[in-house]
Amino acid sequence: MSTGGEKGSATTKTPADFLKSIRGRPVVVKLNSGVDYRGILACLDGYMNIAMEQTEEYVNGQLKNKYGDAFIRGNNVLYISTSKRTLADGA
Amino acid sequence: MATEEESAVKEPLDLIRLSLDERIYVKLRSDRELRGKLHWVTVWLLQAYDQHLNMILGDVEEVVTTVEIDDETYEEIVRTTRRTVPFLFVRGDGVILVSPPLRTA
Amino acid sequence: MLFFSYFKDLVGREVTVELKNDLAIRGTLHSVDQYLNIKLENTRVVDQDKYPHMLSVRNCFIRGSVVRYVQLPPDGVDVDLLHDATRREARGG
What we know:
- The structure holds three protein chains of three kinds.
- Chain A is of the alpha+beta class.
- Helices cover 22% and strands 46% of the residues of chain A.
- In chain A, a hairpin with a 2-residue loop joins strand 3 (50-59) and strand 4 (62-72).
- The longest helix of chain A is centred in the first third of the chain and has 7 residues, at 4-10.
- Chain A is globular.
- By secondary structure, chain B is mainly beta.
- Chain B has one helix at residues 12-17; strands at residues 23-28, 32-47, 50-69, 76-90, 95-99.
- A five-stranded antiparallel β-sheet of chain B has the order 4-3-2-1-5.
- Chain C has one domain (2-91): SH3 type barrels, CATH 2.30.30.100.
- In chain C, 19% of the residues lie in helices and 34% in strands.
- Chain C has helices spanning 5-8, 79-92, and strands at 14-19, 24-32, 38-45, 59-62, 67-71.
- In chain C, strands 4-3-2-1-5 form a five-stranded antiparallel β-sheet, with no helix packed on it.
- The termini of chain C are close together.
- Chains in contact: A-B, B-C.
- The B-C interface holds B 6, 14, 17, 20-21, 28, 30, 39-44, 54, 56, 58, 85-91, 93-94 and C 3, 6, 20, 36, 64-65, 67-74, 77, 79, 82-83, 85-87, 89-91, 93.
């Protein structure tokens, strides 16, 4: 558990700051195709390439696949959003 | 030689580089999936803002999923076709997701 | 190391180039450039029944961006060499 993330989000100013602050946190990554990936953000780079852990793939809201680790190529990414685990579990 | 420093995931691409010589899963555009042994991966910069992720996989199984609509019942018919290829170069621009094998700690 | 140098080693070998429009062309690799544009000779389309208009095409230039896969000749793949190249790039960048 890093407290750096919470501290970071309190002082978030730029998109880059946001991306820095969400490492290690549960996120939802939506692709241009509409597919959602939920998991823990391991790291990301300037191309929006993403490495995730405990990744779940949702197509039309339905769980389709699970991956231990997943690399997502940045050009497919529509957005990255932080998610609360409780919300994800309830969905 | 893999040192401690090299085997840590610092950036997303490390996840793929660390899967060298292991069977990985690759999800591609147009509903294609590959499973194969990763023999080569290279990052090819087209422009400062555009990069490719070309790969060579060995002992590859490809699964293509197609959805057809039945002419009469309008039901969706999902078909999967499989084939194997000994060695396949995959152009990186079609790649959506890469997943290394599960490493049970 | 230039990323396409590996392909240069395959010049003169038989490869199958699969395009993003599903057309698959088999032929002898004549040349390849930095964009991965490919020139094939003695070509034949894999599914000739589906693409009869390609019957008379004997050689062709394929723009790199339309390529989905290239099927490589198994005996033309030096796995150790590829592994080394991948590790070298990982260290360099």
